[in-house]
Amino acid sequence: MDFSYRNKNFIRIYGLIDRFKAVINPGVLLLIVAIITLVIANSSLNEWYQSLWTLDFFVGFGDFNLLSHHGHPFTSLQLINDGIMTIFFFTVGLEIKREVMVGELSSFRQAILPIIAAVGGMIIPVLLFLITGNIQGFTPEEMKGVAIPMATDIAFSIGVLSLLGKRVPVSLKIFLLTLAIADDIGGILVIALFYSNFSTTAILELALSLVFFGLLLLGNKLRINNKLFYFLNGLIIWYLFLQAGIHPTIAGVLVAFTVPARPYINLKKFTEGMEQDLSVLRSTLKNAPNDNIILSNTQVRYLTRIEAASDHVISPLQDLEDNLRDLVNYIIMPLFAFANAGVIIDISNFALFSGISLSIMIGLIVGKFAGIFLFTFLAIKLRISRQPNGMTWSNLAGVSLLGGIGFTVALFLAGLSYPLGSYVLNDAKLGIVFGSLIAGIAGYFTLKITLKKTKSE
């Protein structure tokens, strides 16, 4: 029997959403949005496109505006980058916590190889950016983008890998996923340490945010599983971080670490209680007519008990991660891409193979590949870790290339590194888009050639 708790009035809409998700994975969707954005930004619609990101927002009362920084209201672009993207980083935090507790990062032996690979994939691109930047005579302002090519886009890279279907060994998927998560941790640390502006007045705001963070830790300790409790305190921490000069998306990660990973009711207790409640419900059916559409008070009471208990058998961490996944993959990340991938391509002065664009492209394509591959190779040869089953040097090369798909986090770091509307930011985005595209295509075809076909293919 198929139980569906979806509203029947919207069943067609739900069906369309499910079919859309089945046909287009998040990585492909990001690619489509990026291409559409490039076309719009380089057409007669560019003026309209640019005007979308200068709208001011107000959420508050009187003189208080939640969406403001030191009295300046958020523009639509800031709302996306500093506000909505906090949800993306919140889900990254949830994913990291889950992986540390029960996933690939819970075991040192399992985690060490992709972590070493991620470290290599961050160090080498940064070094190549510094080397090429010095050769080209970058100014100190241009050097601020040194961290841009160290990023790996989880959704994009996993999305490209999924296009190869069942021929991809499970160990290879786990390796890339864990590598991308470790890479995200590195990116979060970089944002926190190098892209946050501290001031003397920020100390009080930071101290106050730590009080609310302490409340969340206490709530976790006391097994408070109410998601509204974590949302409201998290919102306050986000606002205080914003005013203190700490990048507010870091608040999303820190709040995620406080969300309880243990359910209020364990599964064994739930099933035992469910059996008792179902036994009572069965007893109420003995004398009830088959076509009875009105439930008795006893039936309503016990069905309500079952519903309430089922809400407590799934931990807030799992529940939030599951519910936010589609929102992040199919709305937030495409929206971010649409707002940030609008690179203007000037054919008369094409800067792709010089300056910032070239350094970022070299970092993403050459640096990520070399860093991931070489550090993994050395870790295995030096017996720090063993080579996973199904991993060969040739398919490792393909995965190392996929690590060069920086896109989302790289665009995010570019926006933090360079002034809005500057030619340097446009050149940085140009390098990110084309570097990610080349790395993705190269990685896909390398894996397509090296991975064995399944019988169904």
Automatic annotation (TrEMBL):
Protein's GO biological process: regulation of pH
Topology versus the membrane: Multi-pass membrane protein
Main location as per UniProt: membrane
Database matches in InterPro entries: Na/H_antiporter_dom_sf, NhaA
Any Pfam family: Na_H_antiport_1
Keywords: Cell membrane, Membrane, Transmembrane, Transmembrane helix
NCBIfam families: NhaA
Protein name per the record: Na(+)/H(+) antiporter NhaA
Gene this chain is encoded by: nhaA_8
